[in-house]
Amino acid sequence: MTQRRFLMSLPWLILLVPGILSAQPGSPGRPAATWNDHPGKGRVRQSFADAVASGKSGQDRTGLTEQQYTVSSPDGSRQLIYTYDHSQPVLVVNGQLRGKSGGAQSFQLPVDDGFTSHGLFPDNAGEVFAIQTDADDGLYLIRYQPGTEASQVLQVGPSGSRRNRFVPHFGAAGKVYVANVTESRAGVLTGVMVSAFDFGANRVEEVQFHPVSAELRAKMSTRLPEGRYDLVRFHVDAQGERTIELEKHDIAANTYRYDPFAVHDPAGWQPRKQQVRIGERLVFRLNAEGKILSETVVDQFKTDVVH
User: Fold this and answer.
1) Domains plus CATH for the chain?
2) Per-residue pLDDT, 66
3) Is this structure's pTM higher than 0.85?
4) How many other C-beta atoms are found inside a 10 Å radius of the C-beta of residue 124?
């Protein structure tokens, strides 16, 4: 059974199946040999850091197929290093999970046709969580155990808004929260979303959408219009209160325009003179029931010229 048939077989997936996502020896530091544009192939959502790196030149430049990602578990006890192999007909993630003891587990996960990868994240227990979306921005959170090769998938169906910049928070007893930005089809920020996944109970516990209020939108309108908002921090405290921080990002260049919904593409990976701009932050605070406590604009402006 392919991952696509596995993922799309039910509208709400709650599965725990050993071996569906097989573990194989991988080499996270090895660049892919070629770029394979297989029709309908899985894709990788480009981060802001990727977008900045795509325009660098000289000794600071790293090729797209050589991009390596490192993510630590919340307590810092484990480190996940992974790369995307674009040279195969099916997009593959080669990962290596390392512990403080020095041991390492190598594995390989597919990103099937029609799906977009938004990154992999390790928890404190040594499990790996992959965030993917389908063509309609339906959200799939995949829990994978490198040691046993067991996998579990929970899905949140699509909506009328576009979803992006997913950030997880690992709670207790198998509970995982995921926050993301929502935009209109025209690229206008419409709000933030929080989903709670209870893997112990095998269910999606909540899906909350919080639109940008009229008051916050009025404050946003007085700031510089250039740039798009990316989610840069998400935290849930012991009382269940959530903090979501968005930051405005932009890249000014003659031949390039920053698009947070762009995917990895060698055509956009070209040296250029560019100005990286980081603008204000939007901070949302919500209680444990998902009700808005406050919306705050934190003014800042940073800029740098990258060659």
Assistant:
1) 3-306 (2.120.10)
2) 85
3) yes
4) 12
